[in-house]
Design brief:
670 residues; alpha+beta; Glutaredoxin; Glycosyltransferase; globular
Length: 670
């Protein structure tokens, strides 16, 4: 008989609906029962693409005897960390304070009031690897609750005090100057892997926000070392097994230092950010490999991760048919069966299969030499079609607002920069979907699946969707997107800004009360909501002339100065926001003649170069509604009835130009 999770929409929660555990979703119903029955809460947090989450479910949550212990002594709550990042953040911080480490599955034991008193991650059903057996742990904690309540209460009080301290951030005495960027780059440079790119050794994560910063720094300082670091990393990641050489798109991370053996799950947020990073690599270096990887990654999202309604799914699993990576690996015999002997021999050399198996007797494809995109393209297509007949990994088909914002932004910018109208159309479709399907009472909602949207959106949802809407505006010059971005930014400030704190909370003022109000200040795998909010408000300030946006953004950014200097790897998006603030910001107004044509050469010049600190507005000459509230457009005309560009800084503009070469000279001079 299914438990309460059968009523949920999260694929991860639905995976547990037939467990013998009497699971509740997070909410007042579960906590009220815990209070009424005076039972502690067993909170289990995971996500659908998490390998060890599946292991613990199979070993413990499907075991009738262990489930009986859980049901007898605890009120059991299962949480999808991707739906509820607030709950995950609070109790992950608690477990880290208790144990010194964290991860998923997250297992935390709470008082009926929600205060944590014990926790860890994965627990096996029998004692091994130095970990206590889960049944034994359950009995020990039930005994402590029944017979040593005072110790439990004191432990929860101390942990709660530790969590409350995370709300405070001391004001920084460091000024926001270039020195922060130089110091951050030096810290990154010291950790750089000279041979394989990336930072440090195994495991190795792609860290797209950090490499965005390095690309920006290379441009700002004309630093050859920064260019070399970024280019090496982009090349080695693209040629390793972490990149899906057949289907495009990136796996989560590499377990080794050479980017060869990945954890095979694919996440929307990774691929959206990496598509943007490779686009910027193409614009900065002119390397066709960067452009190809950007397009292959976005094509993968459009082909395999797009819901017909317009949203993008969250993730695909690492496992298929019960084996990690089975869907993605090949044998020499399989290559011959699909490609024929001659092509299989060449492909085996190209993808390193001739060097022997590299993963459980089979081969993860990688590129040990130089890429040959033209020669390999028809072979990739054949392997892709053959692979489609395999059992695919599980799909997490919920749609999350924040992650869709990242994908929408990547598609809009790439579409404009690469002249891909299909990408721009996909971005518009996604933006329409987000504003239509994930809104409730004027604010964004967090998650959507099969026509049902729910859960109040977080700071990151509002910030990332607003950032995407600005990018869609620049890709289309349709005023509705700028208005929607500004409306969402105003809603963000209303719900999440705290005047006393001079910063943002992650949950809105209308959110359910939790034991603490979460406030994340790190860019992790997903950008911090605060860093994206700061960057978006700074861009809006330039576009709209509304200085309040800049004032609030700087209020939130200044206290981060010391942290950005000391811990650069955790503040990649914050560093990009600081780079934008320090400028110079290139402001470009593009005005089309009344016929509405002739802009494309000027558009290609503006968007076809690496100008990370750029704001672009556009309109048809004489369109007063398009120019209203946008100082950059006011008083602009199409000179001599021709498409015209105005290049400005702080609303002081160069002479208008109507040909691409003249525009290029002005942009080069900024």
């Amino acid at each position: 008989m299914a438990n309460r999770l059968a009523r949920e929409t999260s694929p991860y929660l639905l995976q547990h609906k037939d467990n013998p555990v009497d699971w509740y979703p997070w909410g007042e119903e579960a906590l009220a029962r815990a209070r009424a029955e005076d039972k502690p809460v067993l909170l289990s947090v995971g996500y659908s693409a998490c390998h060890w989450c599946h292991v613990m479910e199979h070993e413990s949550f499907e075991d009738p005897d262990i489930a009986a212990l859980m049901n007898r002594h605890f009120v059991c709550i299962k949480v999808d960390r991707e739906e509820r990042p607030d709950v995950d953040q609070i109790y992950m911080q608690a477990v880290q304070s208790m144990t010194g480490h964290g991860g998923w599955p997250l297992t935390c034991f709470l008082t009926p009031e929600g205060a944590p008193f014990y926790g860890g991650t994965y627990f096996p059903p029998t004692e091994r690897h130095g970990l206590p057996a889960f049944p034994r742990l359950l009995q020990a904690l039930a005994d402590a609750w029944a017979n040593r309540r005072g110790e439990v209460t004191e432990s929860s009080r101390q942990i709660r005090e530790t969590l409350a301290q995370g709300e405070r951030l001391r004001a920084s005495t460091t000024l926001l100057t270039d020195e922060i960027l130089f110091g951050a780059f030096q810290a990154v440079s010291a950790q750089f892997d000279e041979r394989d790119g990336g930072l440090g050794g195994a495991p190795k994560f792609p860290q797209p926000m950090l490499w965005e910063f390095v690309l920006r720094f290379a441009r700002r300082s004309d630093n050859a070392r920064a260019r070399q670091m970024a280019h090496t990393t982009l090349s080695t990641m693209a040629r390793g097994g972490m990149y899906d050489q057949v289907g495009g798109g990136f796996h989560r991370y590499a377990v080794d230092a050479q980017w060869l053996v990945p954890h095979f799950e694919k996440m929307l947020y990774d691929n959206a950010q990496l598509a943007s990073l490779y686009l910027h690599g193409w614009l900065a270096f002119g390397d066709p490999e960067c452009r190809r990887v950007c397009e292959e990654t976005l094509d993968y999202l459009l082909r395999e991760m797009a819901d017909p309604a317009g949203g993008f799914y969250s993730a695909t699993d690492a496992d298929s048919e019960g084996h990690e990576g089975k869907f993605f690996v090949w044998t020499p015999e399989e290559l011959r069966a699909v490609l024929g002997p001659a092509d299989a021999e060449w492909a085996g050399r190209y993808w390193g299969v001739d060097r022997g198996a590299n993963f459980e007797g089979q081969s993860i494809l990688w590129v040990p030499g130089e890429p040959d995109a033209a020669r390999v393209a028809p072979l990739r297509a054949k392997l892709y079609e053959a692979r489609r007949r395999r059992v695919p990994p599980g799909l997490d088909d919920k749609v999350l607002a924040a992650w869709n914002g990242l994908a929408c932004r990547a598609l809009a910018e790439a579409g404009r920069a690469l002249g891909r109208a299909d990408y721009v159309a996909a971005a518009v479709r996604n933006a329409d979907f987000l504003l239509r399907e994930l809104r409730g009472n004027g604010r964004l909602l967090r998650t959507w699946k099969a026509g049902q949207a729910k859960l109040k959106g977080y700071l990151e949802d509002h910030a990332m969707v607003a950032a995407a809407l600005l990018e869609v505006y620049e890709a289309t010059f349709e005023r509705r997107w700028l208005d929607a971005a500004r409306g969402l930014a105003d809603e963000l400030l209303r719900l999440f800004w705290d005047e006393k704190l001079e910063g943002f909370w992650d949950t809105g003022s209308d959110h359910e009360p939790l034991i603490v109000r979460p406030r994340n200040l790190f860019d992790n795998a997903v950008p911090c909501g605060s860093s994206v909010a700061i960057e978006t408000l700074l861009r809006l300030a330039v576009l709209t002339g509304e200085r309040r946006y800049e004032t609030l953004a700087m209020g939130a950014l200044r206290p981060m100065a010391d942290l950005m200097t000391r811990h650069a790897t955790g503040f990649g998006r914050f560093l990009c926001a600081l780079d934008f603030h320090l400028g110079p910001v290139v402001e470009v107004a593009l005005v089309a003649p009344r016929a509405g044509d002739g802009l494309e050469p000027l558009v290609a010049e503006v968007f076809g170069r690496f100008l990370p600190n750029r704001v672009v507005a556009g309109m048809v000459a004489g369109d007063a509604a398009a120019a209203a509230g946008v100082p950059l457009l006011q008083g602009r005309s199409a000179v001599d009835g021709r498409a015209t560009a105005y290049v400005c800084r702080d609303y002081a503009c160069e002479l208008p130009v109507t040909d691409r070469a003249a525009l290029a000279r002005q942009l080069d001079a900024v």
